[in-house]
């Protein structure tokens, strides 16, 4: 335990299981973290290198053309029209934004920050860093009747979800927005897996047709006004550049301005070469389609192997993970996978509701995924 009663870092507890998996004769296949393994696309590398001469400080708000590129991308890929570039800001990857948003919004003791019951652990961490009260909720109904005094100040959504790959539909999102506006709750939606939607599409469509995972900022959801709504979006996964730390926040310009003011004081600037790389990445849907096609093959291979190993895969309709269960404690399943030399993440990392699940990432090389499938099928 440390600052603001932060929990121990969950992945540290995998060390003994990692050691067990590493002793497999064929070596360790680490599928415990969603960290891309394929090369960063050349056009993005070129944009980064071309901007290597950067003697001056970059703009915290991002350059006007970067903010415009985000607005254009939102319209082309997410069906979000009229996003005001003043309501866009680059972030140093989205994990830092998730961890600091409650603080940047000036939330603190006595304020509640709510997030899904099965969720990426950083929503909880962000509430704690602000000294606010973290609250995991299944659905709005589990909050019970709220007044503007007892409502959370901030509600996190994550669609498609990590770890379970669940996609929230337009109706669901619209109900959340209506409820949030009635109670003065800010909604922040973390949407970095939106392009990686596995529901009934042929590979050829991916480049020309936007994904069907709706954004919180979709006009069908918001009714056309972005008041109180924020989306954070990362290119780490869809563009293989987690090492660049390239992401952005977009939505209600008044809220983005509030966050921006603090970030200017705190020095939260995205490096200039990364801002240029972001512009290049956003303008090129082709590399995203290629990356997606690669994951589609890996997903199909791993899915049938995991099922033949006796696990049931739940949800997982989008994103980079299989959310799988054997109906037993996740640590038992993790040990059984470790005996095959495969390391997955414990469902318990994502809240007590995940205690019987494991999260298996699709982020292995083709050779690793084929090897993992072979080991699982030979169960
Ligand atoms: C739901 C979700 N949000 C945010 C992040 C952070 O992404 P990054 O910090 O690489 O932009 C991740 C990474 O795994 C994630 O799964």
Automatic annotation (TrEMBL):
Needed co-factor(s): pyridoxal 5'-phosphate
UniProt keyword annotations, A-Z: Aminotransferase, Transferase
The keyword Repeat appears for this protein: no
Repressor recorded as keyword: no
Assigned EC number: 2.6.1.-
InterPro entries per record: Aminotransferase_I/II_large, LL-DAP_aminotransferase, NHTrfase_class1_PyrdxlP-BS, OxyQ, PyrdxlP-dep_Trfase, PyrdxlP-dep_Trfase_major, PyrdxlP-dep_Trfase_small
PANTHER family for this protein: AMINO ACID AMINOTRANSFERASE (PTHR42832), L-GLUTAMINE--4-(METHYLSULFANYL)-2-OXOBUTANOATE AMINOTRANSFERASE (PTHR42832:SF3)
Family designation: Belongs to the class-I pyridoxal-phosphate-dependent aminotransferase family.
Protein name listed in UniProt: Aminotransferase
Organism: Nostocoides australiense Ben110
